[in-house]
């Protein structure tokens, strides 16, 4: 299995030898493609894979005439480049050459006929993730800009493509590439594909940045809301928002006038106050409720609570316990 060549999230490019046509079912990791062998045995070459920051990278060096068809992913977008393509290489029966760039939408059928000497590299990720990374680069690569499934009308710039070809040829001929070099090659592939497919923003930079910051904060808030009872680090929030630590900080200050840490703290304090003031929770201790929302230092929590709400947690709890309700829902003060 191709997945045995790498860990779940690894900057190391794992490599497997192509021993028979069935190995090409995973020409893009996890695709499960239909394969047809058109040249006499043996079909040789190798496949290489890496997974990093929620992105799956695949590469193949194929020595044989083969046909591949089927979706590259049912749920994600795949973008890729042919780094070496012999005459007769075709996508959807149209001949393509070296440095051709392709976009393959989620669930869309890919059809290719590869000749001996084929070398390619692909990246598979969500459209939202792709758009966010392009935004970090100051570029626009939304659904409209990406277009539908197909081959780009322009080839990748020769200088970028030749650099990638050298890096991937080294993996396929010399073995696995790990550590910083493996990560650098993956990042170079994705960067080169984005630069090729994306465009410069048409909006004034201030408007463009504000819109991008809003998207970052929305993604981070969705993650925070779903994990508020768990430890939340800036790194985890940045990963969920598909951005860097620095940009996450800037986005929160720009949109909410709060740092991510301050926003999480105040949200937790509001949840604590809600629980303290709720009849169902009135019998719980302040410590229990505080721990539930990830604030184990009671003294510090109380200080923050008073600063935000103008009273101590004990005062909120005492007021809640002084209120009773009759069966008809009428409120009575003890």
From TrEMBL:
Coiled coil: none annotated. Keywords: DNA-binding, Transcription, Transcription regulation. InterPro entries: AraC_XylS_family_regulators, Homeodomain-like_sf, HTH_AraC. One of its GO terms (molecular function) is sequence-specific DNA binding. SUPFAM superfamilies: Homeodomain-like. Residues 218-319 form the HTH araC/xylS-type domain. This is Helix-turn-helix domain-containing protein. It comes from Croceibacterium salegens.
């Amino acid at each position: 299995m191709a997945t045995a060549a790498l860990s779940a999230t690894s900057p190391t490019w794992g490599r497997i030898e192509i021993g028979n046509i069935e190995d090409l079912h995973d020409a893009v990791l996890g695709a499960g493609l239909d394969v047809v062998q058109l040249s006499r045995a043996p079909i040789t070459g190798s496949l290489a894979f890496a997974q990093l920051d929620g992105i799956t990278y695949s590469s193949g060096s194929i020595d044989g005439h083969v046909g591949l068809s089927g979706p590259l992913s049912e749920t994600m977008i795949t973008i890729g480049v042919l780094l070496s393509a012999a005459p007769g290489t075709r996508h959807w029966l149209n001949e393509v050459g070296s440095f051709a760039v392709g976009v393959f939408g989620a669930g869309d059928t890919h059809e290719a006929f590869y000749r001996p000497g084929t070398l390619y590299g692909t990246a598979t990720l969500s459209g939202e993730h792709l758009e966010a990374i392009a935004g970090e680069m100051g570029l626009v690569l939304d659904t409209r800009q990406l277009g539908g499934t197909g081959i780009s009308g322009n080839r990748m710039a020769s200088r970028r493509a030749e650099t990638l070809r050298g890096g991937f040829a080294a993996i396929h001929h010399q073995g696995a590439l790990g550590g910083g070099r493996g990560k650098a090659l993956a990042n170079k592939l994705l960067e080169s594909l984005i630069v090729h497919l994306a465009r410069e923003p048409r909006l004034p930079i201030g408007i463009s940045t504000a819109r991008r910051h809003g998207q970052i904060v929305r993604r981070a808030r969705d993650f925070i809301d779903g994990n508020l009872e768990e430890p939340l680090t800036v790194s985890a929030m940045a990963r969920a928002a598909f951005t860097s630590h620095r940009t996450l900080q800037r986005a929160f200050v720009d949109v909410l006038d709060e740092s991510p840490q301050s926003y999480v703290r105040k949200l937790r304090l509001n949840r604590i106050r809600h629980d303290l003031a709720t009849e169902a929770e009135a019998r719980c201790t302040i410590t229990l409720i505080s721990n539930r929302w990830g604030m184990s230092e009671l003294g510090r929590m109380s200080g923050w609570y008073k600063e935000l709400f103008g009273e101590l947690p004990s005062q909120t709890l005492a007021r809640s316990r002084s209120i009773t309700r009759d069966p008809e829902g009428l409120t009575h003060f003890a």
